[in-house]
Design brief:
Six copies of one chain form a homohexamer.
Chain A: H1 5-28, H2 33-48, H3 55-69, H4 73-85, H5 90-103, H6 106-125
Helix pairs in contact in A: 1-2, 1-4, 3-4, 3-5, 3-6, 4-6, 5-6
């Protein structure tokens, strides 16, 4: 493993998001490579790599936030895959999304659950 | 333990939020007792009582969502207490709030961290 | 009419949203039937069935909120149909959406009005 | 009644919000009188004065939106007064706020209900 | 140039948004012509026509807000075109969107940057 | 000037926000020094220090976003001071906030303008 923030972040991104993470980075290459660089360095190099909270809880945290905010479905899908990749069960991520009905309302929970549905189908047919 | 939704919810609320939860319910008694009743029945009776996700992960979920939404500081404080009550460490809740800088921006994370600061002080001076 | 919360809610949902409501429930059957159950029980069984506010005002309330939040277009469309089903005129729902330009800004009002446009076309060609 | 947009708006504002509305305008006099002018002309002169939706439904619309958005408590209080001024019953506005638990989550509904509580106390103690 | 608010606004809209602005107005003609009229009169007739802030800074303001809010992609694209039309460089608008990673989080910045990418492609293939 | 990200960021923060910026960092020292460190490194070291957009436009960008989001008044006040510190006129920042009435609604613009009022008073009474 490398030891610049970029190298640490790229390792983390690869481990957590796999192909989906690389696609995000790729999609920014032409329009704004620095946003790709910062996305690797700050979220993955600085934050996800920290001790103090295990990766599974980090992905629960992210799925909860993105479901509640409700305006970033593509990123929610990436992190639903990530949550499953780092050891969350299908049941656990459904519970996280379901619980958002309490804090962000039923429409946010419904749209989050449709994202879960899409992600589970992608993984089955994938 | 009782077995109506209200009784199950009240048990959960008492276990998770203790005095702070009872104060929320009390504050609604006069203006809208049905909102108090529904707050016990749906979030606590129906959701928090479910298996499939442990209580610690449920509180991480809620702290993440409330920090990201950023417009419900009183409820965030109640759930920071709750998170600590059900076994989250101080370090873990700080990591959850810190991680929100990635998904909801630095102001949301800063305001969330000020809530953590207040809650930790309340518990020390108790 | 039944008298469990589920039965009361299902009646309400059928009366208000008709086919569209059933489709929402159907879409959740496989991924998370409990979210379907809770959506019937809490919003429709507990809330829409209450006296104190007539159904027409309830749908105005919901159309206003979903237009203002701006991140749940599918649910907005369901409730625009619902509003028309329970007696709102086309003019009234347009006024509700138009008024959101004041409270949530012109983009929210524009996107809400495009949803109105789609819903009215669906009903004409439907 | 005058017939410029400003005059029509000022009449509407006075009728709906009374003293509270004038205070909002007064508070902007020094820092940005044009925002005061636009607030009278567009929301009140252009929108509230329209036919097509009665004033009571307009205030229900606004209370719903401001409760759901959750980041503008002072304006919510002004419009809770306004809703009561134009004929909503206490029960009706409580139902509107309660219903927001479904669409924007329980914290938004709780904070909205605390605003209702404050407003009702203000009106009782005068 | 005319001198009613509508005429001033229509001039501004044409100068800033060109064809894209006219399409927005056209799209509302049938469903709610008054929203089209208000969109010309208030945002463009009253606000964009003001002195005190140059047009380039006004478009930077709007691109920042729409990227941060994250729930109005069609309007963001219109204003990315507008920003380029009134003299922002490609680099400047990318910096504005990139900076939103700090205030609204990385998903908002990513989705904003995808809108930039689409708009730049539209202008190249024109 | 130093050349680590922290040193570059601390220089930027000092230049832009002066005392107010240092207070934010100080307030985090005990509860989460790493959030203070990241706030210096990413927003100020990585973003504000970039070429491609002048500092004045960067602060206009931030004031617009924070007014529109509407849930981070303390940070808005810090950046209203910052905007004035880097060369925005009072008139320009009022125009930015006023323009938010179009994109985020009148309550957001009103609350933003109250923050402007407070900041201008702070600077006068100093």
């Amino acid at each position: 493993m490398g030891n610049t923030r970029y190298e640490i972040g790229f390792e983390q991104l690869s481990q957590i998001d796999g192909e989906a993470g690389h696609k995000v980075i790729e999609s920014l290459k032409e329009v704004c490579p620095d946003l790709a660089k910062f996305t690797i360095e700050y979220p993955f190099g600085d934050i996800y790599s920290r001790s103090g909270l295990d990766l599974k809880s980090r992905e629960i945290t992210t799925v909860a936030a993105l479901t509640a905010l409700g305006n970033c479905q593509p990123q929610l899908k990436v992190h639903l895959h990530a949550a499953l990749n780092v050891g969350c069960t299908e049941e656990e991520i459904k519970e996280v999304v379901l619980q958002m009905s309490v804090y962000a309302g039923f429409p946010a929970a419904l749209n989050g659950m449709y994202a879960v549905k899409d992600v589970l189908e992608e993984r089955r047919t994938g």
